[in-house]
Amino acid sequence: MSKPVISTKTTKMLYRNKLNARQLAVFFCAITMYLFYYFCKSNLSVATEPIQQTFGFSSAQFGIILTTASIVYAAGQFINGFLSDRIGAKAIFFIGAIGAIIGNFCFGFSSSLVLFVVTWAIATYFLSMGWAPSMKIVFDWFPQEKWGLYGGINNAFCFLGSALVTPLAGVCIANFGWKGAFFIPPLFTLVFAIIFLIVVKNTPRDAGFEVEWANDESLQKSSSEEKVGRKDYIKAFCNGKMQIGYFCDFFANMIRWVMVSWIVKILMDSPDIGGFGMAVVTASLVGSFVHWGGAAFSVISGWIQDKVFHGNRWQVMVISFLVGGICIIFLSKGAAILSMPGGTVLLSAAIFIGGGIIQSLQAPIFNIPADILGNRLSGTGVGIMNGYGYVGAAFAGVGFGWLIDTFGSSTAMLVAGALCICGAILSFMLRTPKKSISEKS
C-alpha cells in the first residue's frame, strides 16, 4: 500500500494587524504610479503663463483648455471607475498612463488654441483612468479600518507628484521653453509604468493570498462573483447618501483646481491685478506648497479618520473646508501680504495650509464609496464621485479665468473661500451616526 501524500503547501495569508512585504510592494507601486500620473497633469499649471505670453491667450481663453479637460476628465471618471470594477484596476491604470504620456507629447507639438484644447483633452481622458483604480487597489489590499490611513497616503502621493513636477516643470521651461514641461516629465511616468506592470496585482487572491478580514461587512457587501453591470452602476449612482458625498466632492474639487490651476499664474501676475509679481521659478517653488501641504495633510487626515473618529469622515471634511476657506480668503489680500512682517513666510504658510488642506479633502471623501457601497462597487463609486468633482473643476477653468480677467485675482480667492462654506455645510449633512469598525467586529 502506498503511503498517503501529505501536502506541505500552506496558504499565504494577509493579516489584519500585520503588514506583508508583497502587500506593501503592491501598495507603494500603485500609489507611486499615480504620483507619476501627475508628471503628465500638473505640468500644465506651470506652463500656463509662458503659453499665454507666447500665443497671446487671455486667462478666459486659456480657461477653455482647462474647462474642456475637466469635462472630459469628469466623463472619463463616470466610465473608468466602472471599468476598473468590471475589467480590473491594473489594466485600466496602465492604459491610462501610456495614453497620458502620448497626449502630453502631442500637446507639446501644438501651436493653436484648438490643438491645445484637443490634445490636452486626450491626455486628460487617459489621466482619468488613474484615481479609481488606485483607490480600488487600496480597498482590496487592506481591511476597512486601515482605509483612512492608506487612502490618505495614496492621496498624499498624488500631491507629492504635483509638488515634485511643479519645480521640475519650471526648470524645464526656464531651460527649454514651455514645450520642455510636456516632453521631459512624462518620461518619468513611462519608466515607472513598466515597473507597475510587473509588480502590481489587482487583488490579494490574484497574488496567491487569502485575507483575514474576509468576513468584514465591506466584503460581505461585495460577495457576488458576478461582473459589475448596469444595475450595479445605477445603484451606486442613485444612493441617497452617496449623492451628498458626490456633491461634497463637486465643491472640494472646484476649489482645489482653482488653487492648482491658477496659483502659479497669480503669483506671477502683476500686483496691479491682485498678483504677486514673482518670476516663473520662484512662483513655481512657492506654488508647489499647495501640493506639499496636500501630501502632509492627507496623511494626517487619514490617521485622524481611523484613530480619532473611528472611520467617520464628515468631521474631518467640515474642519478641512472651514480652515481651508479662511486661508484662501487671506490670500485675497494679494501682494499686500508681502508687505507684512514675515510676508513671504505668511504667503507660503497660507498656500501650504489653505491649498494643502483643501487638497487633502480627497482623503476622507474617497473613502465614502467603499464605506457605503462595499469593495465590489468601490471603483464605480469612486469614479462617479470623481466625475462630480470634475464637473465642479470645470468651473475652475473658464469660470475663474473670467473672474480673474474681469475682477482680478483677489475676487477669485474670495469666491473660492465662500465656496468652502458650502462644502462644509454639505459635509455636515453626512453626520448620520456610523458604528466604528471595532463596534462592528
Can you tell me about this structure?
Helix content is 73%, strand content 1%. The protein has 441 residues and is mainly alpha-helical. It has one domain (20-200, 231-432): MFS general substrate transporter like domains (Growth Hormone, Chain: A). A two-stranded parallel ribbon has the order 1-2. Helix 4 runs antiparallel to helix 6 (131-141). The relative contact order is 0.16.
Brief characterization of the structure:
By secondary structure, the protein is mostly helical.
Strand order of the largest sheet: 1-2
Low-pLDDT runs = 1-9, 434-441
- State the helix count: 21
Whole-number tally of structural domains: 1
Strand fraction? under 5%
Relevant CATH superfamily:
MFS general substrate transporter like domains
What is the fold's blueprint, element by element?
Layout: E1 12-14, H1 21-37, H2 43-55, H3 59-86, H4 89-108, H5 113-127, H6 131-141, H7 147-176, H8 180-183, H9 185-199, E2 209-211, H10 217-220, H11 230-238, H12 240-268, H13 280-287, H14 289-307, H15 314-331, H16 343-359, H17 362-365, H18 368-373, H19 378-407, H20 409-428, H21 437-440
Parallel strand pairs: 1-2
Helix pairs in contact: 1-6, 1-7, 1-9, 2-7, 2-12, 3-4, 3-5, 3-6, 3-19, 4-5, 4-6, 4-9, 6-7, 6-19, 7-13, 7-14, 12-13, 12-19, 12-20, 14-16, 15-16, 15-20, 19-20
